[in-house]
Amino acid sequence: MSENPFEVLKEDMENEEVYLKVNAMHRVRVVATLLGSDKIKSQLIPYFETLLKKEDDEVLFALSEELGNIAQIIPNQSSCLLPLLEQLAGFDETVVREQAVKSITIVCGFLGDNEIANTIVPMIIRLASNDTNFTCRVSAVSLMCPLYARAGNQKEKIRQKFTELCSEETPMVRRAVATKIGEIAQFMDKIHVIQDLIPVLKQLCQDEQDQVRLLCMESLMNIAKILNSGENKTNILPLIIQSAEDKSWRVRLALSKIFADLAEAVGKEIADSSLIQIFSNLLKDIECDVRVIAVKSLVRFIKFVSPEKLNLIVPLLQLLSKDPFSQVKQNACEVIGQIASLLPKEYSQSKLQQYLIDLMADDNQDVRRNAAKSAGQFAAAIGPEALNQFVPFLKKCMDDPKWRVRKETMQTIIQLALTVKNPDVFNKQLESVFVMFLKDRAAEVRSMGLSQLPALIATYKQEWAVGNFLSKCVETLSKDVGSLYRINALYAIQQIAYSVDGPVAQDRLWPIVQKCLKDPVPNIKFVSIRVAKSLSKKIDNQQTLNQIKQAINELIDDPDRDVKFYAQEALQN
Amino acid sequence: MNNKAASSKQTPAVRQQPQAAATASQNRTPQPIIQNMARVTDPKHVPKEIRDQFLKKIHFCSQPYDFNDDTKNVKEKQERSQYLQELFDLLKEPNFVVNLVVPHLDLIIEMIEKNIFRPLPILKKTATNGEIGMEDDDQLIDPAWTHLQPVYEYFLQLIVNEQPDVKSLKIFITHSFIQEFLELFDSEEPREREYLKNILHRLYAKLVPRRKMIRKAINDCFYTLIHETYKFNGAAELLDILASIISGFAVPLREEHVIFFKTVIIPLHKVQTCQFYHEQLLRCSMLFLSKDPTLATFLVEGLLRYWPFANSAKEVMFLNELLEVLEVCEISKLEPLIPKLFKRLIKCIAGPHLQVADRAMCFFENDYFLTILKSYKPFTFPLLVPVIAQIADTHWHKVLQESLNALKTILKEIDYQAFDKALNNKDPKYLYIIQDAKNQKKDRQKIEEKWKNLTKQAIQKNPNFKEPIVPYSDTHIVGEHNGLNNGNITIL
């Protein structure tokens, strides 16, 4: 029972529903494999031709994609697919022609350089010269980029056509060119980039449509990457200056977005001498959206300029930290945190510390949150001596009404504690803030503290864990506070148990847990059972072990189902 | 309320006058130009000092200020609006216009350009984030609008004014001017768009030599909407202008206009934000059809092709339009579209959305449509009857069930024999539409089996063969397969 694959395809394409036709179209590669190259040419391609006129865009989209797959089946003869693809590349529907362009690129991968020069280049030129359909010209622009490198002696022609399209009246084509000009530059010899592309790039950067100018920004960066410092100075820098003063804030925003990458692309020398000044203006832009994005880029930008030039940024940061728009301040916090490690300590302390401290008390919770985070980085950069100035404010942040702020603060404290690694500093400054997690109202904050406890114990050792910290836990347990706090404290004790040796667990921890096993709240009872279980793994003393067993045994008939369950489970293994 | 809105629309200038007059009398120091001009005996020779005063005021009005912040440059802004009022008053005297305004048209247009050609702001609702899910009915207001409005009013009156002739205006209305002007239509401020519409309309009417260029620029605007951005606030206003442009087209239509109909008007239906301008689009379409009824079949084809998916509100609009367009169609030309058309209608009737079904049922109350139905009886009856008969018995909604039964009766009355024959058809072609997914799967079994076999063969022939992934199956999400860029999808 051998079916004729071509007939099956045709039968399925007779279907009424578009989605079934799309499915059928995606199975074309089955048919193509079975038919072989001769029949693909004689049957399949003429059949596809008939589809072009009548089928829905969805089906044609699938066809465009599958033609690329068929090319892989008959790599040596894939050029027979080109006439179809050329038609599809001129279609009205955007997704269809974009897909067709992709498939043409696949086909070109199988063609020799000779064929590229003799078949593909004329096709591109044909598409680019189609005056009635701008869609053809847009597709031509997309095709020029990947194929330029292989165009051989036809390169000249493509370059000429490309620059011609830059002066198009149709804005759609100019937008396509503005997007691709950075890409095609990667494949060109530098001399052509400078001679041919830079002049049109200049022109596009002054386009009457802000959309076109906006699209140029990314291309500007890509071209800057391939030029050397001197060439960038004469060619790219003027365009950056001009764009930074563009009357459309959308263009300035696009520029702000890529500013850090741009700085990286043009190199330190230009960044130091010119970009800082330009960027300063963007940071002071009247449009708040531009400032928000500019400050965001600033975080990365500061890494690409020399440290000695950074003091130009500092006054701006002071300004930005007082910005009326909270998102600006939010991002400014981040920069302050980062820049501290790049500036001389005393300088950042005298110029920025107070601003950061003010931000920690901002009206906006997101600002406070970011400020708390940056305070950690800032303090870490300055060293332990900055801590005593920050700790009071961090403590205040732990009283913040918003738990997200408290959580961030907790994390900051922990990070600091883990970086300073100095028991003295920790005991004097940080510990008192850290233990606040035990009494926090929000579960998120409590579990945050809990999750980092093992790392802290590893750093500050058993002495701290069973000393000061344990007493805080006991305090929480003994005071008549909500059961959730007691559970949290119990879990903290469990963490301590993991890191101490047997005798300590037996003498210091077990008595506490023993008491908790008799707590009136069922949840505390079963958490205690689990903690007791972890303790028993540490303890060698048979007498204590029996005590533990005994205590759990007493709970086996507890009226609460869960307590009963955990007690049974604990005793079983 | 309505009255107030209407009057403010008609005469915004008149409403402002008393206020402006009051401010003018307060600051008497710089004498208004109009009074100085009134004293000039020979209007052909305007004294230099008056001319200088005039130019100074135009220059002053060209200065940019931050209109978003009311606390900045308060004095200058006040002065500016007073000057604008003076310039505006000058337009009322033909004498002054000829001798003072027209010779300096270049500076005046520059002043207008400097004011209105600006990057459009994104209007922010409020500084604080609004509650999510809260309906906000308040219109967004551009704080700069109060300062822009007089410029627009001045521009409008300048164009309306008889004195500046086509020749002198023409040189300023260049391609780039029009392109920048059209970009402003994307403004979120409806009053601004209203002005833009009126001004562009007058420009088009007045500047005959520029008409083709304006039309082309509008085309580009729509191409961008269709092919790239999918959203453009001023689409409705531009279509309004087009409507009056279209009504001016000579019959028979030129090829250029027919291309416009096919490449702009029809594809505009597929844009996701079509709801916002559908009313105007429909008007343009109908105007085209009134000039050339043969275009109707193309539009029907387009509607069926771009039928909305998962958007019932848009579906209802499409149904309304479809019926209207069908009435223009010549019945004999419809033949190739009949299966698609009736399949679509059956889908709507049998679909889960009541309003859509109801709208589709309305087709059968239309006499012209019934004539189409009758003319293609051999096609339509086998399509319609089995489905209608079945859902007339089972439909969940009582009212619709009743009208389905009524439709059954109508169909019976049209041709009893054909009805019976279609009902007893062993293999009704479209019954699958109302079948559940399970049954549909069964129907597919045979061909799926064939595909499976073929795939096996293909793997035998080529061990490296990669089995195709079909996008529409139970486990795949179509969007993912197609790699659709979700950034293109506008969520309304």
Automatic annotation (TrEMBL), chain A:
GO cellular component, as recorded: cytosol; nucleus; protein phosphatase type 2A complex
HEAT repeats: 44-79, 81-119, 197-235, 236-274, 275-311, 313-351, 352-390
InterPro entries attached to this UniProt entry: 2AA_helical, HEAT_type_2, PP2A_Regulatory_Subunit_A, TOG
Boundaries of every TOG domain copy: 264-490
MF (Gene Ontology): protein phosphatase regulator activity
Pfam families membership: HEAT_2 (PF13646), VPS15-like_hel (PF22956)
PROSITE patterns tied to this protein: HEAT_REPEAT (PS50077)
Keywords for this protein: Repeat
The protein's name: TOG domain-containing protein
Species classification: Eukaryota, Sar, Alveolata, Ciliophora, Intramacronucleata
TrEMBL record, chain B:
MF (Gene Ontology): protein phosphatase regulator activity
GO biological process: signal transduction
Location of the region described as Disordered in the Swiss-Prot/TrEMBL record: 1-31
GO cellular component terms, A-Z: protein phosphatase type 2A complex
Pfam families given in the database record: B56 (PF01603)
InterPro entries assigned to the protein according to its UniProt record, in alphabetical order: PP2A_B56 (IPR002554)
PANTHER family linked to this entry: SERINE/THREONINE PROTEIN PHOSPHATASE 2A PP2A REGULATORY SUBUNIT B, SERINE_THREONINE-PROTEIN PHOSPHATASE 2A 56 KDA REGULATORY SUBUNIT GAMMA ISOFORM
Name of the protein described by the UniProt record: Serine/threonine protein phosphatase 2A regulatory subunit
Organism lineage string: Eukaryota, Sar, Alveolata, Ciliophora, Intramacronucleata
